[in-house]
Amino acid sequence: MRISELAEVTGTTVTTLKFYLRRGLLPPGRVVTRTQAEYDAEHVERVRLVRALSEVGGLDLAAVGRVLEAIESPDIGRLDVMATAQHALSGPREREGRGEGEGPGDGEGPGDGEDPPRGDERTRAWIAARDWQVDPRDAALDRLAASWSACDDAGIGLDEVRLDAYADAVERIARIDVTSVPPEPAAAVRQVVLGTVLVEPVLASLRLLAQQHTAITEGRRS
Amino acid sequence: MRISELAEVTGTTVTTLKFYLRRGLLPPGRVVTRTQAEYDAEHVERVRLVRALSEVGGLDLAAVGRVLEAIESPDIGRLDVMATAQHALSGPREREGRGEGEGPGDGEGPGDGEDPPRGDERTRAWIAARDWQVDPRDAALDRLAASWSACDDAGIGLDEVRLDAYADAVERIARIDVTSVPPEPAAAVRQVVLGTVLVEPVLASLRLLAQQHTAITEGRRS
What we know:
Two copies of one chain form a homodimer.
Chain A: H1 3-10, H2 14-23, E1 30-33, E2 36-38, H3 41-56, H4 61-71, H5 78-89, H6 121-130, H7 139-153, H8 160-179, H9 185-218
Antiparallel strand pairs in A: 1-2
Helix pairs in contact in A: 4-5, 5-9
């Protein structure tokens, strides 16, 4: 199909598709004439995936690029896959400079794994007390430390006890995540990376609905 | 203190603070001379909150404005509070038009609650089967439907059984959320709104770490 049909089928615009092509998020079509290329079902699937990751997953286009790269590395190990998914998920923090003149917020490369231990002391102590086996240089530790501090600063009473209670529930989620991973390597990579990014908004919506349900059924005292 | 001191204390820049003032995210200081205003501890706290919501919570500035508005409405009901927090959380989807020429993605007002039932048929059926008491016009239903469909499109096997398993875990999280809400109304509003937004990245980081821990300890077969 032509690019205009690809746009129609995927509910997007030719401008957007050309933008994806320029950013390397969409592989080029098969050249037919000097001004025309043919696109196929794989392009349709790819456009849908890019849109899902950016619109549903909330990733910026640099993060989308990293996720696509991870999916296309068939020899990547399971932990590397998780690290990549993680890095992709921490992408939104790159947007923090927007409108604040604090330098470019886009296009930063992933960490190289040669950094010092991540997270602050409290976070590392909590992880150790919980006996979680995680890479001490994992960027998620920084993210946990920063978001935990932000809760403190905002006066939310998130102490170790409440964090442990959350972690108990989240361990169940992680067990579902990990046991849903298919045994075949390429499928596993796809499942872990996309599942980590795309299931996140599912869980966030479930939390809002479950809060409402709980507040209504248990919290009638309010 | 002067605006330059406020910038220093909060680790930001005068440019950023003036931007917040223009957007109404930071209340004006007490006018001292025609070119100078005084800021106090409340301004420091507010700047930290704005930064936490945007940088840690990942909200765009329009959503930050809505959250601040919610916190400042002392007579808002518990469900309204949740709806506002929800709306603020669904903010990132407003960014979807970026670079795609699909019209303005910023500054849209919240829904007026006069809309038809939200979510698709499958989502409504699942909610009904689960017997969750939620507002059928809640925007989180749309978000759940969209993110669930995106998982389908990406080939993630998220069926009703797996969604139920996630929901069981998320119900525990919601119970912690709801029982952590202080009885005093103004504090409750603050806790629910900020907790919904700021605890989200804590949970997302915990999920990544718990996945890693689970994959290492249970998944040595990989």
